[in-house]
Specification:
There is one protein chain. With 116 residues, this protein is an all-alpha fold. 67% of the residues lie in helices and 0% in strands. It is globular.
Length: 116
């Protein structure tokens, strides 16, 4: 897999993990029980995105996925993925949220309301 493709993969993975652990209904059983300090930390896409990036970079290290021009099994690669995830996780999360809101908006202008 080329370096640019893995950068896109890492960006997508970190944004997906962020949305799963902060707002996805399927994981609400977990994130609704976060202690207040952890909930505050997890609600910050940059803060938690760094650690998600390090985790995804560690997965890439194990799989041998390169990151840009760095080899996948270079010790610094997971840390650099984390630093890049600090920036791209909020951006990707915003794109995800805007797309989700656009998909869930309902046009109710044609609905006839009954008057009491």
């Amino acid at each position: 897999m080329s370096g640019i493709l893995t950068a896109v993969l890492y960006a997508t993975l970190t944004a997906t993990v962020y949305s799963l652990f902060t707002q996805a209904l399927i994981m609400s059983w977990l994130w609704s029980r976060y202690p207040p300090r952890l909930a505050y930390f997890m609600s910050c896409p940059s803060c938690s995105g760094f650690w998600y990036g390090v985790g995804c970079g560690a997965l890439g290290y194990w799989q041998g996925w390169p990151f840009l021009n760095l080899p996948g099994q270079y010790w610094l690669t997971p840390i650099l993925v984390g630093f890049c995830a600090y920036w791209w996780t909020p951006v990707m999360a915003r794109i995800y949220n805007d797309a989700y809101e656009g998909l869930t908006e309902r046009d109710t202008s044609d609905v006839v309301s009954e008057k009491p």
